[in-house]
Structure formats: structure tokens, C-alpha cells
């Protein structure tokens, strides 16, 4: 990172402030009543007025705090076109990760906001909008849940592992993901599908689940939670040496990563539509 690059801790402070304000807006809007306002990739991939309002608010707040940065958001794509002098900072935002939970009132949905400097995620916050639980991390500075340092699970046996995962919105992809699950479920303790990838990564970081994998995640689903996971000591990657990405995200403590990776290769978890 260049000497002129902003410090991860400074970016985290901005991220936390802006994410808290965004979460407050989402909470207020939910209390006022929520409905799906549109669908995106498929009929079950919904977007609410709150997703859009929170994204607009976060973009506006970031523009005030750091005028030269760009923002990649789930709902509006890339905004900000003035390249910063010195290091390039890109913010990666999911205004409400777990939109279906938000719609149904299941208290597991979050604002996820990460700051990337020259292509490397250096700070991230995931804030559960319903409960106020907040996970944060800075590159090299550790991962925290509400101020408590995180270290991931100590489990070493995949057969005893509680494994989180999720499903995409495309029915063909879901079928492939279900087939993978069929091969996995008898070889682990159990699985969890909590409905918000950013929170899943944080739950793996704190050891509330032992490991997590999912195909089809976008940058905004994994940027902040991925940093929380790696800073808690987890290995984050794809299959066969690939980085974590749309083909597959696997997050697991070092002792579980290899066995889970090999099982996911055997089950062709990164394949299919
Ligand atoms: C979704 C959630 C879900 C995961 C999907 C994501 P959204 O994000 O994180 O848990 O399984 O892959 O698309 O649509 O709620 O922002």
C-alpha cells in the first residue's frame, strides 16, 4: 500500500458511522411497513424501498466523508467518477444483505460495507440491522464482534462441523446447490441456511458455525464479511487454488479448510449453472 494510502482504521471509522446510520434508516423503514418494490434476477430476488434508500444514503454520506472515492453497491452499481489523488479507494456496499429476511421480519439482515484500497479490502463492517450486533475488521488489525476479538472455531473434524451455506435465486442454480448439499449433509454435523451471506461469514469468524461455503456470491456479499473471517484466522478461498469469488466462497479454520475443500471439489460445488 502506498504511503499516501488512507489508514485502514480511519476507513473503518467512517464505515462504522455510515453503516450505523444506514442501519437506522432500514430499521425505521421496516417499522413503517415493508414490501417488495421490484424483483431483479428472478421472481424471488426482491428489492425493497429500503435497499434503495439505504444505498443512496450511504453513497451520499461517503461522498461527504471522502469525496474522491468510488462506491460499488448492490442496487445502483458503480457511483463516483472522480479518481482520488493518491491511492484509489473503492467502497463495496450491500445496503441490506438478507433482503428476504428483512421482508419477512426474520432478524438476520445486515448492512455490509467494506473499503478497498488499490484492489485490496482493508476495512469492513457488517451490522445486523435487527439486533445491532456489529462485526468489524481491518487488514492486519484483527476481527471483532462488538469489541471482542474473534478467532473462529477450534473444531478439527469435518464430520463434527456445523456448516453454513446459502442458495442463489436462479432455480437451476438452486437445484445444483441442493445436489451438492445432498452429498455433504451426511458427512458433516449439520448445515445452517440463515439467509445473509455477510452474517454467515461473520458467524464463521466467531465460531458460531464452524465453516461456510456458497456459490454465486457477489463482491458486496463477501467483501466485509470475508475480511472479518480472514482476520479471525479463517482461510478464505475458492476451489483448486482459486480466490474466493462467484464460483465459490469457502471460509473455514485451517484444520477444516482442506477436508471441506476436497469434499466440495468431489461434489463439484463450483460447477453447475
Ligand atoms: C443474498 C443473501 C443470501 C445468499 C444469496 C445472496 P441479498 O443476498 O446473502 O444469504 O444465499 O446468495 O444473494 O439478496 O439478500 O442481498
From TrEMBL:
InterPro entries: IMPase (IPR033942), Inositol_monoP_metal-BS (IPR020583), Inositol_monophosphatase-like (IPR000760)
Domain of life: Bacteria
EC assignment: 3.1.3.25
The protein, known as: Inositol-1-monophosphatase
Cited PANTHER family: INOSITOL MONOPHOSPHATASE, INOSITOL-1-MONOPHOSPHATASE-RELATED
Catalyzed reactions: a myo-inositol phosphate + H2O = myo-inositol + phosphate
Record bears the keyword Repressor: no
Keyword Nucleotide-binding attributed: no
Pfam families in UniProt: Inositol_P
Cofactors, names only: Mg(2+)
Amino acid at each position: 500500500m502506498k504511503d499516501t494510502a488512507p489508514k485502514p482504521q480511519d476507513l473503518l471509522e467512517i464505515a462504522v458511522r455510515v453503516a450505523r446510520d444506514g442501519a437506522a434508516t432500514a430499521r425505521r423503514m421496516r417499522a413503517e411497513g415493508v414490501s417488495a418494490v421490484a424483483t431483479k434476477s428472478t421472481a424471488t430476488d426482491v428489492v425493497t424501498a429500503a435497499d434503495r434508500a439505504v444505498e443512496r444514503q450511504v453513497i451520499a454520506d461517503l461522498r461527504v466523508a471522502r469525496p474522491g472515492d468510488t462506491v460499488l453497491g448492490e442496487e445502483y452499481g458503480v457511483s463516483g467518477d472522480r479518481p482520488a489523488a493518491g491511492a484509489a479507494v473503492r467502497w463495496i456496499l450491500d445496503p441490506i444483505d438478507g433482503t428476504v429476511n428483512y421482508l419477512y421480519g426474520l432478524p438476520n439482515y445486515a448492512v455490509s460495507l467494506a473499503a478497498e484500497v488499490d484492489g485490496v479490502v482493508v476495512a469492513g463492517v457488517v451490522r445486523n440491522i435487527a439486533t445491532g450486533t456489529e462485526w468489524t475488521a481491518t487488514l492486519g488489525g484483527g476481527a471483532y464482534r462488538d469489541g471482542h476479538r474473534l478467532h473462529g472455531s477450534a473444531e478439527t473434524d469435518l464430520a463434527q462441523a456445523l456448516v453454513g451455506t446459502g442458495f442463489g435465486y436462479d432455480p437451476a442454480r438452486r437445484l445444483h446447490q441442493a445436489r451438492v448439499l445432498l452429498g455433504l449433509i451426511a458427512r458433516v454435523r449439520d448445515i445452517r441456511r440463515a439467509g445473509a451471506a455477510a452474517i454467515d461469514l461473520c458467524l464463521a469468524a466467531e465460531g458460531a458455525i464452524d465453516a461456510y461455503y456458497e456459490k454465486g456470491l457477489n463482491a458486496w456479499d463477501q467483501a466485509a464479511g470475508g475480511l472479518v473471517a480472514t482476520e479471525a484466522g479463517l482461510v478464505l478461498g475458492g476451489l483448486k487454488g482459486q480466490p474466493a469469488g462467484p464460483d465459490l466462497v469457502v471460509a473455514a479454520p485451517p484444520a477444516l479448510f482442506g477436508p471441506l475443500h476436497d469434499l466440495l471439489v468431489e461434489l463439484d460445488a463450483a460447477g453447475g449453472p
